[in-house]
Structures are given as C-alpha cells and as structure tokens.
Amino acid sequence: MAFSSTTIQLAVAITIAVVFALYVRRRRSVLAGLAGPESSHPILGFLTTLLRGSEAGEVDFALQNKYGGAVRFDSIFGMQQLWLCDPKAVQYIAQTAGYKFIRASDRKEDSRLTVGDGVATVEGDDHRRHRRIMLPGFGAKESRTSLCALLLSQGKTGKSYRTRGSRQKFNVVQMADKWVQIIQDEENATIDAPFWISRATLDALGEAALDYQFNALDDMSNELARAFSGLFAKARLNPSNWSIFEEYVVPLLPLTLVRTWNAYVPSKKRAIQHHCKTISEDVARQLVQEKSAALLADKGGHDIMSLLVKANASAGAKGGMAEDEMLAQLSTIIIAGHETTANSICWTLLELCRNPDVQTRLRNEIRAVRRERNEPGLTAATFDAMPYLSAVMKESLRYHTGLYHIAKEAAQDEVIPLLRPVVGTDGKMIHEIPVQKGQNVILSVAAYNRDKDVFGQDAHTFNPERWLEDGYITKQAFVGVYANLLTFGGGHRACLGWRFAILELSTFLVELVDKFEFAIDPEVKILRGAAIIMPPIIEGEEAKGTQLPLRVRLAPPMD
Ligand code: HEM
After folding, report:
1. pLDDT class for 539, splitting at 50, 70, 90?
2. Is 112 helix (H, G, I), strand (E, B) or coil?
3. Is 485 in contact with 398 (CB distance < 8 Å)?
4. Region 494-523: what's the mean pLDDT?
5. Which of 495, 503, 504, 534 to mutate to test the pocket of ligand 1 (most atoms within 8 A of CB)?
6. What are phi and psi of 253, to 5 degrees?
7. Which residues are listed for heme binding in this entry (predicted)?
8. Mean pLDDT of 162-178
9. Which are the contacts of 440, defined by CB distance < 8 A and separation ≥ 6?
10. Span 434-462, mean pLDDT?
C-alpha cells in the first residue's frame, strides 16, 4: 500500500508524541511484577503474535498453559497490557465491577465507524439508557415470540403469532431445499457452508428481529448481504504491522485527531466499514419510519425493531434515543447478531463431521422427539425436549467461542482478585492485581472456556457429554449469561441477543441434522480465523476469507 507524504509525516509526529506519553505511562505501570512472554516486535511488542497467531485462541492456550490465569505483555512501544482468563478475575471485570471497567477506548472509535453510536459503542449513562430501551425486545418472552413466529411459519401459524404473508418456509428450510438441488445436480458436490448459512442467518435476523425481508437467499446480488457476509475476515484477518500500529496508536490521540485520521487517511478496513454503515443506515431509516407509522396506527409488531421503536416512544424526549442512535441500533444488531451466529452454526457442523458418533446420536434424538411430538413446525418447547441438542450447542459455543477476546479498560484505579495465584517475576505468589485507570485488559474468552478446573481435564477436547454428567463441570465463579461460558460476555455489557442466538442455532441444527449427513475431506485443514470473531478458513487459502466446504448427503430415513 502506498502512503502519501502527509500521511507519513503525520504518522511520524504521532509516533513521537505517543512514544513520549507511553514512556511516562510505562514508568508508572504496576504490572511489572507479573510474568509474561517476550515481545515479538520492537515496536508492536507481543501484539504481532497475539493478533496473528496460526489460529485464533492458540496463543491464548499457550499463555494459559505456561503462566496461568494472569499474564502481562508488552503492546506498542512497551506499553504494558494485562491478559486474563482466571475465573474470579473474569467474573470481577465482566460482572462485579460494573462500569468500573468499560469497553476498551481503542476499540470504540473503530466500532463507531461501522455501527455509529449504538448500544455496543456508547458508555456510562448513554449505555444504560440504550440497554433500558433495547432490553424489552431481547427478553426471554420476546426472543421466543419473534423466533417462534418464524419457526411456526413453515407449518400452521399459531394464533398468538403474526402470519408471515406469502412466506411459507423458514429460512433454513429454504436453504436446505437449495442444498438438495445442488447435491442432486452434481455428484460429490461440496457445499461452502458459510456462504449459504450467512445468507440464511441474515434473512432470519431480518424477519425475526426486524420484520424485514433481506431476501439474501433468493437474491445473490443483494447488496447488504454481500457487504456484511464475511465482513470480519475481509476487514481484519491477518492484520499487517501497519494495521496493528494504526489500530493501537491512533486511538491514543485526542478524539478530534482520531476522527480526522479516520476521515482522511485511506484504509481498506475503513472503506469496508463505511460501505456497510451506509447500506445499513438506508435500511434502518426505512424501518424506523415504517415502524413508527405502524405504532401510530396502533399496529405495532413484536419484532425487536418494533419493540425498540415502541419503547423509545414511551421513554419520551429525555430518556429516549435520537434518530442517529436508533439507526445505529440496526447496524449493531446486524453486525453483532449475523456473522457470530452463522459462524457458530458452521463450527458446530464441522464438529459433527469430526465426531460422527455425536452426529448420529444428535440426529436420532431430533428424529425421535419430532416423531413423538408430531408438530407441524418447531417451537421452543421442541428444543426443550432435546437435551443432547442442548449439550452439543453448549459444547460448541464453549469450544469455538464466537469472539476470542473481550477488550476492557479500567475506568479508575482498581484491584483485580484472582481465584488461583500466579507466580510473579520475583518468584513470589501474586493473589491480586492492582491496575491504574486507563489500563487495557484483555479477557480471553478462548482460554477461560478451556479452563480445566471449570470444564474438566479434557477441556481441550470436544465432548458434549460433559454437559450431561453431574459433577463434570465445577462452577468456580459465575461468569456468563449462558451455561457459565464467557462466549456471550457477562454483566452490564453481556450480549443482548444470546437467547435469540441459541434459538436460532437450535433451529438450524434441528433442520439440517435431521435432513443431511455431514462430512469433510480429511485433507482440508480448517482453522479458526483470527478476525475479532472466528470465521472458519482453510489453511493455505487464508486470502480467500471465510470458507468451510462440507460434503453434504441426504441422511438415510429413520427406521
Ligand atoms: C453465537 C452468537 C453470538 C455471540 C457469540 C455473541 C457474543 C457477544 C459478545 C461476546 C458480546 C460482548 C460482551 C461484552 O462486551 O462483555 C456481545 C454483545 C452484543 N451482542 Fe452478541 N453474540 C451473538 C449473537 C447475537 C445476536 C443474535 C444479537 C442480536 C440479535 C446480538 C446482539 C448483541 C448486542 C446488541 C451486543 C452489545 C451489548 C452491549 O454492549 O450492551 N448478539 N455479543
């Protein structure tokens, strides 16, 4: 990439200013006694290893194995960063400390570029206000209602749910029909699972959460689907040294300079982010207008966006959201809820390929329950009757976390407790870690979810059985909203859509595993891409982005 001389001069000036600021800060750092790895780059420290490891999570597992639950490492210019997977430390930061730990400020402007000032970006009182307005759309009842409306639409529509007009099939059934066509037309065809699942989950999110038809499965040229599919891999996989430098140094500048930089210094990532934001804002504007009109006519729906418009109207001028904040929520929901869920479905299918006995047992359970209940469509109660499905999902969300890191920052001086002490550089045991205001902290979702004390000595093995046996999992500290995993985060920032994601994952698995048998060419090595989220990628074909070629066959009928 060629840089203009102004960009280079600006970069040099910023570098000098930041080096000086960090030099002062480093002298004050209280993390020096914690053990950690050597830097792998003179300027970028250990970041090049952490962000570009062979596979997302692998560096985390090595740190956990060598140092335990708390690690210090150097980021840019020797600035000290804290990495944690200790259950009590994670619990403290994600849950107990509340707003004493905020979203890392180096991530905020970046996510603002894609989603604007939505719930995932704002802080403090604004964040409380956004969550209060959004929560009604994401509660247990609403998640079930909006998704059940969809699930039932493939059969008879329940009287308490709205009809879906001309749409007859839930998206996964529609996708499965297309797969049947492909495998009938071409012997030994492989299906690139993320290509299809990403479109189907976008359609599902549109219909269930927004009452909007993206038509991504029918319309291969759909602009929004093309922009958002594989977005993280396109924008973030394998970052160059320059991208890492920019991502960590620029946010240290005063906000106006950060925004000037983002507006005038060209980058592939920012071009992608800008494109996505523009497209999603167009859809959001249309939706907010439609939903507001429907509300005025007393015809408000039960989808998340309608509930959001309704809750916002009730909140009134003081407690409500401005128009740009409402628009930002739609981009937030698409970014937060689309690829994360699509990837989780893909990883679960891959584990079913790698563990054929698990696949067979799951199919047997699905078919037995469906035969026994004999219902036209799926309901939340159908899933409740499938304990093995629940175990497979929990294990998949544990083993392949949607995000492998959650980045936080101390909003004040704090002391972080540890469940298990770690050995300091002077050989003494460290039981708690004092941090100063502004300290960046990485919570390793990948490593916490593989904690052997919590999940068993075989935590690095995919084993759904652990969720069915009493005493296999020992709760060390309450951490997350679902199955005590850190996958959906925790506390005041926990994922708003986790119930929705679980219902969606359940639906896709039931429909797909009932109908198809899945296998993968053993020669194809699938890696967890490191792109904030973890898209499946093929070793040696990283440049092609998200891929998961599966051998899909019709499953033999039940005896
Ligand atoms: C398997 C799928 C998913 C995973 C693994 C996932 C994971 C996460 C994580 C780790 C966070 C950040 C938690 C933190 O910072 O402490 C988050 C936040 C969020 N997620 Fe999800 N998510 C998923 C699906 C969804 C869905 C389907 C939706 C919406 C329909 C959604 C909406 C959100 C929102 C709005 C936030 C921001 C919450 C806030 O900042 O207050 N997510 N998610």
Report:
1. very high
2. helix
3. yes
4. 94
5. 495
6. -80, 165
7. 495
8. 67
9. 75, 79, 81, 82, 104, 106, 407, 408, 409
10. 96
First to last CA, the chain: 60
Binding-site residue ranges for heme: 495
Which ligand 1 atom sits closest to the C-alpha of 403?
10
DSSP string, 476-499: SS---SSTT-STT--GGGS-TTHH
Q: Examine residue 208 and state whether it is found in any structural domain, yes or no.
A: no
Asked whether the beta carbons of 99 and 107 are under 8 A apart, the reply is no
Average pLDDT (494-509) is 93
Q: Residue 369 CB: number of other CB atoms within 10 A?
A: 19
Count of the separate structural domains present in the chain: 1
Distance, CA of 165 to CA of 162 (rounded, Å): 9
pLDDT tens across 245-284, in order? 888 888 888 888 888 888 888 888 899 888 888 888 888 8
Centroid of ligand 1 to alpha carbon of 403 (angstroms): 9
Residue whose CA lies nearest to ligand 1 atom number 3: 340
- Which of the two residues, 19 and 291, has the higher pLDDT score? 291
Q: Where are the beta strands (DSSP E) in 150-213?
A: 190-192
Evaluate whether 423 touches 429 at the Cβ level (below 8 Å): yes
> What pairing do the DSSP bridges indicate for beta strands 516-519 and 536-538?
unpaired
Atom of ligand 1 nearest to the CA of 505: 1
On whether residue 41 sits in a domain, the answer given is yes
- Domain assignment present for residue 241? The answer is no
- Cα of 359 vs centre of ligand 1, distance in Å, is 27
Confidence (pLDDT) at 23: 56
Rounded mean pLDDT of 538-557? 94
Q: Whose CA is nearest to atom 24 of ligand 1?
A: 337
Please give the number of the atom of ligand 1 that sits closest to the Cα of 486.
10
Let me know if residue 371 belongs to a domain.
Answer: no
Three-state secondary structure call for residue 440: strand
The domain of 486 spans: 5-112+401-493
Instruction: Give residues (CB < 6 A) around ligand 1.
Output: 94, 119-120, 131, 209, 332-333, 336-337, 340-341, 344, 402-403, 406, 487-489, 493-497, 500-501
Q: What is the DSSP letter of 555?
A: P
The ligand 1 atom at the shortest distance from the C-alpha of residue 408 is 15
**Average pLDDT for residues 296-308, to the nearest whole number?**
80
Distance from the CA of 296 to the center of ligand 1, in angstroms? Answer: 30
Report which protein residue has its CA nearest ligand 1's atom 16.
Answer: 489
